[in-house]
Specification:
By secondary structure, this protein is an alpha/beta fold. The chain has two domains: about 5-40 and about 285-385, Aspartate Aminotransferase, domain 1, CATH 3.90.1150; about 60-285, Aspartate Aminotransferase, domain 2, CATH 3.40.640.10. About 40% of the residues lie in helices and about 15% in strands. The protein has twelve helices and 13 strands. It has helices at about 10-15, 45-55, 70-85, 100-110, 125-135, 150-155, 180-195, 250-265, 270-280, 285-310, 335-345, 375-385, and strands at about 30-35, 95, 115-120, 140-145, 165-170, 195-200, 225-230, 245-250, 315-320, 320-325, 345, 350, 365-370. The protein has a seven-stranded mixed sheet with strand order 2-8-7-6-5-3-4, sandwiched between helices. Strand 9 (about 315-320) and strand 10 (about 320-325) form a beta hairpin. The longest helix is centred in the C-terminal third of the chain and has 26 residues, at about 285-310. The protein is globular, with a radius of gyration of 21 Å.
Length: about 400
């Protein structure tokens, strides 16, 4: 018998961390960890102070709360999103979840039955594929083209009577690519034409290089008939361990989402929700500084990449926390990545973790997550990759 969990592959990040077992890193060449896109620093001191006050002074922070989240946080999301996107979003169209991964899982359970299909652009975010596998959903690979961009007309050719949704992640994980607003609109129109849902995961929205709204979908007064947006507080406010995410969708969709959330976690993390609310209300300037730093790291990769290009590397995409590259070596990426730990003191993820086994391009691709290395760290990373002779 094949169980639900046996239907999918092992979690990629824990698998990669096992490559570190038994490897020693000398002081002059410490490990450069560009495997995971989670900030390793705690929230900023003002937020930590606010959280300490909440722990001691707010009894509700230690109790069950509403399944769909803290009313004040739902209201803040609705208000800020309406202003930022130029649309109309009601409190009842927002749900708070235990991280963005749970938001995706809840939405999938709401939309699909056994054997249904969803379209996932490749390279895909591996946890999206894993949940589809474990839920009996067929994840249909949507091949991307130049610049790792998916195209609505390619998606059109893949739609069947079992298709329920198209999933976009922008800025993209693992590719780093920012999907143009016109492209997102094209997928929205396609989904509406076929009566599908368009799920737009905007976990990395706060690090988008474009000022202003990254798309105009919320300006449609009937957006809730087609659009489901996912969001995360983990990256924006360094609340990774507190697990706070959000879903913006129709009220009827959230009524179904509530069933899943109540069964799985009962309610989102109470302290994390209160911290997220405090951050939204007080850390706008700080978050702008975080965005500027990430954009500078992106620029550092773009400026330095010609050094690797001269050695046969190719930069496929860069943005938010990620760069997706191809390597020049005659070895598949799933063998190269563990070798890099020993030969160069670099931990990153191979493209095979983001592609179906049938897609050979995964064997040439690597993902670099630069959330935790600054310009100096990027320079050292490129120095080590440039010196590789395999």
């Amino acid at each position: 018998m094949t169980t639900r969990t046996a239907a999918t592959f092992p979690p990629p990040v824990p698998e990669a961390y096992r490559w570190l077992d038994g490897v020693e890193f000398p002081a002059e060449r410490p490990l450069i960890n560009v495997s995971q896109a989670a900030p390793v620093a705690p929230p900023p001191p003002p937020m930590l102070d606010a959280m300490a006050e909440i722990v001691r002074g707010d009894p509700g922070a230690h109790l069950y709360g509403p399944v769909l989240g803290l009313p004040a946080l739902r209201a803040e999301v609705a208000s800020q999103w309406s202003a930022n996107y130029g649309g109309s979003i009601r409190n009842t169209q927002v749900a708070i979840t235990s991280g963005c991964n749970q938001a995706f899982c809840a939405v999938m359970e709401t939309l699909t039955g056994e054997g249904d299909e969803v379209l996932l652009p490749t390279p895909w975010y591996f946890n999206h594929k894993m949940w589809c596998d474990m839920s009996g959903i067929t994840a249909v690979p949507l091949l991307t083209g130049t610049g790792l961009l998916p195209y609505p007309e390619v998606a059109r050719s893949l739609i069947t009577d079992r298709t329920r949704a198209v999933v976009l992640v922008t800025p993209n994980n693992p590719g780093g690519v920012e999907y143009p607003a016109s492209l997102v609109r094209g997928f929205y129109d396609l989904a509406r034409e076929f009566g599908l849902k368009l799920i737009v995961d905007e976990t990395y929205r706060d690090f988008h290089s474009q000022s202003g709204a990254p798309h105009d979908l919320f300006t449609d007064p009937d957006w809730h008939d087609t659009l489901i947006q996912l969001y995360s507080y983990s990256k924006s406010y360094r609340l990774t361990g507190h697990r706070v995410g959000a879903v913006v969708a129709s009220q009827s969709t959230l009524a179904e989402v509530e069933k899943f959330l109540d069964t799985v976690a009962i309610c989102p993390n109470q302290l994390g929700q209160r911290a997220a609310l405090w951050g939204m209300q007080n850390l706008g300037q700080w978050l702008a500084g975080e965005r500027a730093e990430i954009l500078d790291r992106r620029a550092a990769i773009e400026e330095s990449f010609p050094r690797l290009a001269a050695k046969g590397w190719e930069l496929l995409g860069v943005g938010a926390y990620f760069a997706c590259v191809t390597h020049p070596f005659d070895i598949p990426s799933n063998e190269l990545a563990p070798l890099l730990v020993k030969e160069a003191g670099i931990l990153l993820l191979p493209g095979t973790m983001f592609q179906p086994d049938s897609h050979p391009e995964g064997k040439k691709q690597l993902r670099i997550a630069f959330a935790n290395i600054d310009r100096a760290g990027i320079t050292e990373l490129f120095d080590r990759l440039e010196r590789l002779a395999l």
